[in-house]
Specification:
The protein is of the alpha/beta class. The chain contains six helices and five strands. The longest helix has 14 residues.
Amino acid sequence: MDVLLVSPDPRSRELTALTVRSIERRLGEALRFRAAANGDLGIKAALRDRPQVIVADEIASRAGAFALAKTLRDDRDPFAGVIVILLERSQDAWLARWSGADAWFVKPPDPFEVADRLWELLEHRGMLPQEERV
């Protein structure tokens, strides 16, 4: 399973990868991570590589996580994978919902909560190997 991490901060991408990686045991396979330093690069990578999961760190920029999610959901060939946004503040949850994100968490998120929600979303979308579904 491919995961795209979008954040300008390498440390944030590293911590997010650790959080998401916790589903590997349940999944029974290693995750493959790619990284993008901003929303523009994340959009290009997502359209080119079509990862199953995107976790985007909301940043104050022209192309942050909200723009990334909205652009991918509104594309001619809408992104069908799971999009998770890490928010700076809880008041931005409405923007995450508007953008088409599947889930959002205020930073720093609880790693277990993120992993459990990600698993639920993958299961709901039928993106887990057949034997992994409960």
